[in-house]
Amino acid sequence: MTVRVVLPSHLRQLAHCDRELVVDAEATQRAVIDAIEQRYPALRGTIRDPATGRRRPFVRLFACGEDLSHESPDAALPSAVVDGSEPLRIVGAMAGG
Fold first, then answer.
1. CATH 3.10.20.30 matches 2-92
2. H or E segment at 15?
């Protein structure tokens, strides 16, 4: 299946790609990130830790106005992402004081 993914500018610069990617993957976070890392090797280790496979702490995943970051990486993505009407957004979170 085809999934639309929107990347933040710093990841687009690393991958030398457009704002929105289209990847062929199963409709789970893990499968989509696997497909992104396969297609854009420069992004390996930027979205998730290569040793543990866990999402990096300051990276968030959003779709359909919901934060999907704390769901299981193998949970199904929302149906609007699956049917292509909404993208999966990868966002760098901000912190500070």
1. yes
2. helix 9-15
